[in-house]
Amino acid sequence: MITAENIKTTIESSLPCEHVQVEGDDGRHFNALIVSAEFNGKNTVQQHQLVYKSLGDKMKQEVHALSMRTLTPEQWAQES
């Protein structure tokens, strides 16, 4: 069964991120907050596509649902 930590590690290993937080303990449904400079100049759909690409086949086989919030470092700093 996949864990929130597995998803976090996978995202961090294939997408340069300033911050990644993943929650979910049922092994199928997860919530994520991802902050990356790679999101600069991209709309929300494009940002989410980058995250899905970083997860690869896990999204097809292991993860049933991933709700995510993607932010640029500047957006994240404004919220802090």
Describe this entry's structure for a reader:
It is a single chain. This protein is an alpha+beta fold and about 80 residues long. It is about 40% helix and about 25% strand. It has helices at about 5-15, 45-55, 60, 75-80, and strands spanning about 20-25, 30-35, 65-70. Strands 1-2-3 form a 3-stranded mixed beta sheet. The longest helix has 12 residues, at about 45-55. The model has no long low-confidence stretch (mean pLDDT about 95).
Number of helices: 4
Quaternary form: single chain
Please compute the radius of gyration using only Cα atoms.
12 Å
- The termini sit apart by 33 Å
Low-pLDDT runs = none
**H/E element sequence:** HEEHHEH
Beta-strand content estimate: 15-25%
Kindly report the average pLDDT value: 94
* Main sheet overview: 3 strands, mixed
Structural class, please?
alpha+beta
General form: globular
Number of strands: 3
Q: Level of helix content?
A: 40-55%
Q: What topology, given as strand order, has the largest sheet?
A: 1-2-3
Annotation keywords:
80 residues, alpha+beta, 3-stranded mixed sheet, 4 helices, globular
Topology:
Layout: H1 4-14, E1 19-23, E2 29-35, H2 44-55, H3 58-61, E3 65-71, H4 73-79
Briefly say what this structure is:
This protein has four helices and three strands; from the N terminus they run H-E-E-H-H-E-H. The protein is α+β, with helices and mostly antiparallel strands. Strands 1-2-3 form a three-stranded mixed sheet.
